[in-house]
Write a structure and sequence with these properties.
It is a single chain. The protein is mainly beta. The protein has a single domain, classed as Outer membrane protein transport protein (OMPP1/FadL/TodX) (Porin, Beta Barrel), CATH 2.40.160.60. Helix content is 13%, strand content 54%. The chain is built from 8 helices and 18 strands. Strands 1-2-3-4-5-7-8-11-12-13-14-15-16-18 form a 14-stranded antiparallel barrel. Helix 1 runs antiparallel to helix 5.
């Protein structure tokens, strides 16, 4: 009982951890946080967003270092009547989310390097566990009462922590065919790591038994079932302490092509295509009481391809507008998790719009909005694996201290669309599980040129 539900919940986390279009981090620079539209960038963060646009930098060396601090709460409410708690909160805290870029530009040629967390980038910590872990335990009082042993309460020490981060190391070569047309080719090396740590222990119940527990006190569930005899050996094992401590690691390569067009002095257009990434994850397991992570087992967890479009237009000499579109090919990936593809209704996409205004030659202000549309079915949603469409607003600015040094400061807030799911649980009918999320990020970046 408990073993099955714990396994199902952990499978859900593994699947969520490898679906990189759902987890793909397009927030790869401080300017992105303040604009939310960088696909047509010709600044140094074009290393990620528009490699072909790097040929528009001035000759010399260019470096950028930025970091974000991310605060996200994932709230799950569950109206299953037998649960002690109805609300579970997973806290995601990412104190440092770094992006590093370096470019050398000479005449028509630019060579660049980028580093950043291209997917994942944080950990979710559920101090009180999750409904998937607790539902079966919460059913113990009803099960025992129906067997003639009046039981009214249960308790358990449940916790879970999962993390996922895919670091990307990117190299590009960009070349300007003319003043109007530039091309770039590159590749990103992905180093992936997922970790899972979970405990369910100290399960207690208060069955009234004339010999074993005449006062109906809270007692150890596995000890009580063991004393009932061999017929209850399954329940003794199912309620014993259980722990998972495992990690998965793997690597892969993402080929990247980019095109930049400058048809007008005040208009820049960009196209980028990231090919699908073959990625295999290998288990490194310290403890696995559920048998879900056989040590050394390899699973296929490919990262979907991405198609991106961008445009930047100078409305006035000191005012620019930008538009960015990303399309994620979720439906075409190869995952070693049966039935996962059936949970994807359509490919995900996002659309961002930003405005940037030069107050003076030293101070620049910007704002942006972004809509993200997830393409998942309702059946995809679980307490550990749920994704929500969202709207985001970003604000910030740049301080230019000299023609070779500038600082970016930015913040964003995300408003997520709530989601509900009906879960059948015979013989008690069905119950509703709801998913909510809040997210705030702040970012600081430093850009240097020589």
């Amino acid at each position: 009982m408990r073993r099955v539900l714990l396994s199902m919940a952990l499978v859900a986390l593994v699947v969520a951890s490898v679906q990189a279009s759902i987890l793909t981090n397009t927030n790869q620079s401080a300017p992105y946080i303040r604009l939310l539209s960088r696909n047509a960038s010709t600044d140094i963060d074009a290393v990620y967003y528009n490699p072909a646009g790097l040929t528009r930098l001035r000759d010399g060396w260019h470096f950028s270092l930025s970091s974000q601090t991310i605060f996200q709460d994932k709230t799950i409410t569950n109206d299953y009547l037998l649960l002690n708690e109805r609300e579970y909160i997973g806290k995601v805290r990412v104190p440092v989310f770094p992006d590093v870029y370096a470019v050398y530009k000479k005449n028509r040629l630019a060579v660049s390097f980028g580093f950043g967390p291209n997917a994942g980038g944080g950990s979710a910590d559920y101090d009180t566990g999750l409904p998937a872990f607790e539902t079966a335990i919460a059913s113990l009082p009803l099960l025992l009462s129906s067997a003639g042993l009046p039981t009214t309460a249960y308790s358990a020490d449940i916790s879970f922590k999962g993390s996922s981060v895919f670091y990307g190391f990117q190299l590009n070569v960009s070349y300007a065919l003319s003043d109007m047309v530039s091309l770039a080719a590159g590749a990103r090396y992905i180093s992936a790591k997922n970790t899972y740590e979970g405990d369910i222990k100290s399960i207690m119940i208060n069955p009234k038994h004339p010999l074993l527990n005449p006062t109906a006190a809270m007692i150890s569930a596995p000890a009580f079932f063991a004393k009932l005899g061999p017929a209850f050996a399954y329940y003794a094992a199912a309620t014993s302490d259980m722990r998972v401590d495992a990690k998965q690691t793997g690597s892969g390569f993402t080929p990247i092509l980019s095109l930049n067009l400058k048809p007008l002095e005040n208009l820049n257009l960009a196209v980028r295509y990231e090919f699908e990434t073959k990625l295999e994850l290998t288990n490194d397991t310290a403890e696995d009481d559920v048998g879900l992570f056989p040590d050394g087992e390899v699973t296929r967890s490919d990262i979907p391809a991405i198609f991106s479009l961008g445009a930047e237009y100078g409305l006035m000499p000191n005012l620019r507008a930008s538009l960015s579109f990303n399309y994620f090919f979720d439906e075409g990936v190869n995952w070693d998790f049966p039935g996962t593809r059936d949970l994807i209704a359509h490919n995900a996409w996002d659309l961002g719009f930003g405005l940037e205004y030069d107050v003076t030659s030293m101070f620049r202000l910007s704002a942006g909005v972004l809509h993200t549309e997830m393409g998942i079915n309702t059946d995809y949603q679980t307490d550990l694996r749920h994704e929500l469409s969202s709207n985001t607003v970003g604000l910030g600015g740049r301080v230019t201290l000299s023609d070779r040094l500038s600082i970016d400061i930015a913040a964003l807030n995300v408003w997520y669309a709530d989601a509900d799911k009906q879960i059948a649980y015979p013989p008690l009918g069905s119950f509703t599980e709801s998913y909510k999320r809040t997210s705030v990020s702040i970012a600081v970046g430093v850009n240097v040129g020589f």
